[in-house]
Design goal:
The protein has 359 residues and is α/β, with parallel strands linked by helices. It has helices at 22-33, 60-65, 93-103, 118-121, 124-140, 194-204, 210-213, 229-236, 251-254, 286-298, 316-333; strands at 12-16, 38-41, 48-53, 76-80, 109-113, 152-159, 162-168, 219-223, 240-244, 259-262, 277-280, 304-310, 338-343, 351-358. It has two domains: 12-179, THUMP fold; 194-358, Vaccinia Virus protein VP39 (Rossmann fold), CATH 3.40.50.150.
Length: 359
């Protein structure tokens, strides 16, 4: 009687990130997971990090212990099989199907992806060419089926002859290809920075809460507002806005009658009463921004806050961790009940976005 071959184990954790931030994501994982038996492969500019189990055990428990939404620098989070390398151009499909069958995986959908790099963009056509034949073979082998817990198979191509297969689970993944929410720039917005605030709302606020949290008639302050990219988003939601900046505001935005422009220092200004929103995209030291936002939140001058922290060139995770730690300490000491999230959004560059809701 032939011995039964054990299934291929998902011994790797594959996470996508912005190219250039691989070491920051690896540092975040290593710091937050402590003594977890993982080896990190973080090639500069690759746009992803592989966390490999050193003893070959499944990474599923570790992947669940640090959900995607709780990370700062990750865009997508997958349990993964070892990469398939040196695939033949004559038959890329057979090794892929064989690895899935060996893993025992089943799933309801497929997603073809590549790193967010110039080389990755050149691979887009490959996924399209392989989609139909792979779907057909997966169905025949029972891997692609209608009822599979909404699991999704990701085929992450890093070269024409190299792919890594990952599995994602509902509630612990990004639903967007590459983990990227791509937004269209509004033609009448004063600056492209407007997309940072729009993406933050999508990231941190469920759509079911938009009607309440972004209600027309709400009040907001935009610190460092000029020329008005973030103020524009607030006005589009029907909010009355205090725009605090010594620089000039967009003239069309001022004609709406919904903006009061105050040429004052955003770090020193205080509101005339309690507001619904505080937003801030001031270019300054992260520690200084944290101290200013902490004053607003401990004084309960607003209910919601979205602000950016500009990052240093080195040890970016350590800076973010220290700043968020200081903010949490001050809120806890003041007895404030709050919800806090921080993410490196797609429309961010050398910064991260923080969201705080007081409860």
């Amino acid at each position: 009687m032939q011995d039964q071959v054990p299934p291929l184990v998902a011994s790797e954790w594959l996470l996508y990130c912005r190219p250039g931030f691989e070491s920051d994501l690896a540092a975040e994982l290593a710091d937050r997971l402590g003594e977890a038996p993982l080896r990190y492969a973080a090639e500069p500019g690759a746009g992803h990090v592989r966390a490999v189990s050193v003893d070959g055990s499944p990474v599923n428990p570790l992947q669940r212990s640090l959900p995607l939404e709780a990370t700062v620098f990750a865009r997508q989070s997958l349990v993964a099989l070892p990469p398939l390398e040196t695939l033949s151009r004559d038959d890329r499909i057979s090794p892929i199907v064989a690895q899935v069958v060996a893993s025992g995986w089943s799933f309801e959908s497929l997603m073809f992806e590549a790193p967010d790099t110039n080389d990755g963009k050149a691979l887009a056509g490959l996924g399209k060419a392989l989609a139909r034949p792979l779907e057909s073979l997966f169905r025949k082998r029972g891997a692609l089926r209608r009822s599979a817990g909404a699991r999704r198979l990701h085929l992450f191509w890093t070269a024409g002859d190299r792919v890594q297969l990952g599995l994602s689970f509902p509630g612990n993944r990004s639903e967007h290809p590459g983990g990227i929410l791509r937004l269209k720039f509004p033609p009448h917005a004063p600056s492209r920075s407007t997309l940072k605030l729009e993406e933050a709302w999508h990231q941190f606020l469920p759509r079911s809460r938009w009607e309440e949290a972004l209600a027309p008639g709400s009040t907001a302050a935009d610190l460092g507002a000029a020329p008005g990219g973030w103020t524009w988003q607030l006005v589009q939601r029907g909010m009355q806005v205090y725009a605090i900046d010594n620089g000039p505001m967009d003239k069309a935005l001022m004609r709406t009658g919904m903006v009061e422009h105050l040429r004052e220092d955003g770090f020193k200004w205080s509101p005339p009463g309690t507001l619904d929103w505080l937003v801030c995209d001031i270019v300054d030291r992260p520690s200084r921004v944290i101290e200013m936002v902490s004053r607003w939140l401990t004084q309960r001058w607003c209910r919601f806050s979205v602000f950016n922290l500009k990052l240093p060139m080195n040890r970016r995770w350590q800076e973010v961790d220290a700043c968020l730690g200081r903010l949490r300490d001050q809120l806890d000491s003041a007895g404030v009940d709050y919800r806090l999230h921080c993410r490196h959004l797609y429309h961010d560059r050398e910064e991260v976005t923080v969201f705080v809701e007081l409860r």
